[in-house]
Amino acid sequence: MGKLPKxxxxxxxxxxxxxxxxxxxxxxxHEAGPLDEKTRILVKLALSAGAMMEGAVHAQVRKAVKAxxxxxxxxxxxxxxxxxxxxxxxxxxxxxIDDILDxxxxxxx
Length: 109
Prior knowledge:
6 helices, 82% helix, AhpD-like
């Protein structure tokens, strides 16, 4: 789906034990409850959007695409955010979502 961000690659190289612990934590929290993979990805996308974390939104959209979640479902997260985080912030989130979905469309054409 694409290369890892350079900063994250450097983190993996410089702190491999921390990276392994981080991966284990991620796996543990995903398995700790009844939510299915699609729901977990959309929830994490919403959390990333609410925190206005562009890189995290990009990562979650990449995961959503890999999981074959429909573009309309991914974009609805930004729409649902409008009353909570406001229109301008939601439009920023939509643009971050489109950063990834537009690249996907370009590759498929």
